Every structure is written in C-alpha cells, then in structure tokens.
Amino acid sequence: MKNITIDTITEAVINHGESSKTHPRLYEIYTSLIQHLHGFVREVNLTEQELQCGRNFINRASHHTQEIPAGEIHMLTDLLGISELVELLHDTNNSTECNLEGPLYVPNAPKRHMGDRLGIDAGGDILWLSGCVLDLNDRPIANAMIDVWQANSQGLYDIQDPSQPDGNFRGCFQTDADGKYAFETVVPMGYNVPASGPSGELLRLLGRHTWRAAHIHFKLSALGYAPLTTQIFIDGDRHIDSDTTFAVRSAIVELQKHQVSDRGKPVYTTEFNFVLQPIEQSIESDIYSLSQ
Ligand SMILES: [Fe+2]
Whole-model pTM? Predict the structure, then answer.
C-alpha cells in the first residue's frame, strides 16, 4: 500500500487485514469506529499538538487509583454519556430500567437477611426500603438475589472512606416466598465523582459540575431471568435534573417522612418494585475476546 492520501487513508485502514472474515462483529465495530474517528479528526482539523494532548489524557486516565477501583476510563465513559447511551439502546420497556453499574461496585458483598441494616452511620437519617421482585405478569419471584450498594449520609462509599468498615452499606439480600425484600439503611447523599484526575480536569475546563444525584445501586439475579443492574434515585435531590452521568430516568422514589425516632431524627420509608424479564439466549460477540 503506497501513495496514501487524505482521501484514501480511511479506506486503507479499514481494509488492512482479514478481520472481516474472521471476526465479523469486531470488524463491523472497528470499521465504524475508524470512520467516525477519522471524520472527527477532519471535522475539527486536529493539530499534532492537540493529538498529543489527547494521547496524554488517555494515558493518564488509564492509570488505576484506589479512588476508582474500576479505573478512570470506566468513569470517563459514564461522564461522556456513553455508558448511559448503551443502557438506553438495550433497555426494554417492560422490565425495570437497566442503569449504570458505576466504577464503585465491589463483588461478594456481605450476605444479609430480611430487615437487616445495610450499614453503620450514626449521623444518617434512617430509611426503610422495601418492595417486591416481580416478573412481567406481576407475579412474585422468590429467592431472587438483590445486591445493594450505596454511599453513606456523607456521600462516601466504604472503599473511599477509612472510617467505614469494609462492606458498609453493601449487602446481598434474598427475596422471600412472596418475592418481598426489606432492609434498613440511611438516606444516601449525592456525591462528587472522584475528580482529582484528568476526567475532573476535563469537566472543570468544560464548566461541568461533578455531582451525582443521591441514589442506591442494585444488581438483581434470579433463576430463569435476565440479570438486572440498576439504580434508584431520591426525589428532591438538588442534582436530580443535572446528574453528571446522565443516569436519572424514571426510577425515582419519593421518601415518606415518619415519626421522630428515639435518636430525635426523622425516619423515612419508601418502596420500589423491581421487574425482571425472562432470560433470552445471550448474543456471543467475537469482540469479547479482546477483554480477556
Ligand atoms: Fe453510586
């Protein structure tokens, strides 16, 4: 291949190799990515200096930190709306909306029982959260697993806050024979996403804030049903209309304020029912081998 020009370089890159035959899905994604990337470079008339700036940005964002165990690239896809767009593309209208896992999930959360406290937080307002896990016909799903994680009343997860014990405000619950679940927690506070790295610098340059609206994360699984990762948001949070990951959709709960507890603080309750859809044949993609 020679005599490459500005008019032929994109096709040359796309046609370089045999992946169209060996890895058709990877080739489809690769082709579109190259077309869009080259189109972007042309559209903004990218300079060599700006390209180097972009390389440096991605290199810096690739370094894992304790602050974001899943890595800053994960957070960056959330901040750019890419993660939520993927969720929206593959969501169905029948089951509970799927939503971002976020970079602060930790597997193997402590096993907890119906009515247990999710964590310790002396300063937080108590919240009783309960509901059912249902199928598409409103029938309860018994023995569904619900993996919950949230920030405390200061907007901090256990892995970000040495003062919290490991597994604080994380837990795995199982629904009872009627598909019910219930646990005690505290009203979570919205928080700023970790912003000390290049993603934070980008947001500051763009004049964007770093706040997430208050939310609780869930992963649900049950035999015969598609796994669901989602979040519910607390109505009235000051960033409910401007969450920096664009994740606020319709799963918003209103808190009911109740009697003052013996600690002199209000107690809140709310309910949320999850709806799972039957499992379908998963689509194997040849691109998965890239992440091994
Ligand atoms: Fe979160």
Answer: 0.87
